[in-house]
Design goal:
CATH topology: Ferritin
Order of helices and strands: HHHHH
Helix content: over 70%
Number of domains: 1
Shape: elongated
Number of helices: 5
Structural class: mainly alpha
């Protein structure tokens, strides 16, 4: 068992839960002229993340380690700042760009650890997740006009 890879995968679980939580918060509390489009987009994003985080946790278990859990533990591990409930739609989207970009950095680190270990299954999983989050960042930035 390669500790750097396990630690990197555990961080991906924590990051993913943080993104789920923040995206769900935005889904519940978005308001304004973009309500319908953002409400639906946020739901699609967090719905996609639920089975994804399970797959990553199961990969950790397949590697012989334990998956992290507990909301406060996951929040501490991820280190992602929480968004205030009364944020504007634009603040929500900007925040979700930042959280997904943080996750992308950690996904690339996990991918590199998998490459070093010769673990092509974990590498493939990190590449697939990277593609999803790159697409999410592109869509969110497009909403902001970036």
């Amino acid at each position: 068992m390669n500790k750097p890879l396990i630690d990197a995968l555990r961080l991906i679980v924590a990051d993913t839960y943080a993104v789920i939580g923040q995206t769900h918060l935005c889904h519940w509390n978005v308001r304004g002229p973009s309500f319908f489009s953002l409400h639906n987009a946020f739901e699609a994003q967090y719905t996609e993340l639920f089975p994804a985080v399970d797959e990553i946790a199961e990969r950790i278990r397949a590697k012989g380690a334990l998956a992290p859990g507990g909301l406060s533990n996951l929040a501490t591990m991820a280190g992602i700042k929480e968004l205030p409930e009364d944020s504007t739609a634009e603040e929500m989207v900007s925040h979700l760009v930042a959280t997904n970009e943080k996750l992308l950095i950690d996904l690339k680190n996990a991918r590199d650890c998998a490459i070093e270990e010769g673990d092509s299954e974990s590498e493939d999983l990190m590449i697939a997740r990277t593609q999803v989050h790159e697409s999410t960042v592109w869509m969110l930035k497009s909403f902001l006009g970036n």
